[in-house]
Amino acid sequence: MNNRRLSRRLTIYDLADVVGTSPTAVSAVLNGTWRKRRISEALADRIRSAADAQGYAINLPASALRRETSRIIGMIVPKYDNRYFGAIAERFESMARERDLFPIITCTLRDPKLEEEAARAMISHQVTCIVATGATNPDRIADLCAPAGVRTINLDLPGHKAPSVISDNYTGARNLTACILKRIEKRRDDGASLLFIGGRAHDHNTLERLRGFHAAHAEVGMAVSGDHVLPCGYAAEKAEKALDAFVAAGNLLPAGLFVNSTITFEGVVSWLRARKWSRSTAPSIGCFDYDAFAACIEGTVGMVRQDVPKLVDAVFRLFDEEIREDARWIEVPPILIESGLRKRGRSSSPSDWGTRLC
């Protein structure tokens, strides 16, 4: 066996000889279709162990061409640096493996060129589907995939050429805004609206959250002035620069802030700390997206947690049922979590803060 391996590439026939089974069984285990062929898990384990011991690696692209499909599923994510996208990637991998799929995930940094490059690379590897998460131009990815027969599903940001799974951003933002306004009710005698900061001015999620932001103000008879909306992007440093410009223009920081991501939240908190904002005058902050540590920071009155399990479950329902309707959008309600009020006279350590559903 060792002499044979030195002279040529190891084949499934060699592995079948080692294990004492058929080449068909070896092929089914290595390409992930063994359960459909009613091969026992014990035999599958023996074949995989033998393949590892003999240094065998399946040629996935060639195998995909022979089967006209592959067991590879791809995901594009925009960032790794917050809990939301990290949780999406982790659940996606777990659910893909449950289906005998091999997951490939790549981070594209909200760069359209990197998104296209990633899609082309995945297509060349014969992926069966690409899940475009938070893509800047999901319809472009769908256009690239269609000629190759590769399915696409959009997650987090919707498109019009493939089914999309998104959070109900409007309702989540309206509820969060109402929560902040309620907390600062005694401090808004001047009629000033909350300050909205973060996000991109033209993406679907920010537009929907702004719509909910305005609706919640209207429900209490308030209007939002244009200079109180700062869609400065998501990066922490951009939030700090936007706040600098807001104050430099002669504006007073309002009693409440709506922060449009946990990444932006980092910039807001850093900006407030750098200016040694006093406890009595610091604004109350609500954030769309959830971080357990950020929820414990004094001044955080509420956070919206997007329901990652239900979002990714919906993606795989579309995948399993082979749903391809271009215009289908599935909206998943997010969860609003309100931070507990600190008791008067006690320290502001995290242990003094609780959470409850609004």
Description:
The structure is a single chain. The chain has about 350 residues and is an alpha/beta fold. It has 3 domains: about 1-60, 434 Repressor (Amino-terminal Domain), CATH 1.10.260; about 65-160, Rossmann fold (3-Layer(aba) Sandwich); about 170-305 and about 335-355, Rossmann fold. Helices cover about 40% and strands about 15% of the residues. The strands form 3 sheets. It has a 7-stranded mixed β-sheet with strand order 8-6-10-11-12-14-15, sandwiched between helices. The longest helix is centred in the first third of the chain and has 16 residues, at about 85-100. The protein is elongated, with a radius of gyration of 25 Å.
Write the layout of secondary structure elements.
Layout: H1 2-7, H2 12-19, H3 23-31, H4 41-54, H5 60-67, E1 72-77, H6 83-98, E2 102-107, H7 112-124, E3 129-133, H8 138-145, E4 151-155, E5 164-167, H9 169-183, E6 195-197, E7 199-200, H10 204-219, E8 229-230, E9 232-233, H11 236-248, E10 256-259, H12 262-274, E11 284-288, E12 300-305, H13 308-320, E13 329-332, E14 335-339, E15 355-357
Give me a quick take on this structure:
The chain is of the alpha/beta class and about 350 residues long. The protein has 13 helices and 15 strands.
Output the CATH class name of the largest domain: Alpha Beta
Terminal CA distance:
66 Å
Our Rg estimate from Cα atoms comes to: 25 Å
SS element count, helices: 13
What's the CATH topology label of the largest domain?
Rossmann fold
Q: What CATH architecture of the largest domain would you give? A: 3-Layer(aba) Sandwich
> What fraction of residues sit in β-strands?
15-25%
Helix content percent band: 40-55%
The run of helices and strands is HHHHHEHEHEHEEHEEHEEHEHEEHEEE
State the low-pLDDT regions, or none: 1-7, 341-358
CATH homolog superfamily of the largest domain: Response regulator
Overall 3D form: elongated
GO molecular function: DNA-binding transcription factor activity; transcription cis-regulatory region binding
Domain HTH lacI-type: 10-67
Keywords: DNA-binding, Plasmid, Repressor, Transcription, Transcription regulation
InterPro entries: Cro/C1-type_HTH, HTH_LacI, Lambda_DNA-bd_dom_sf, Peripla_BP_I, SBP_2_dom
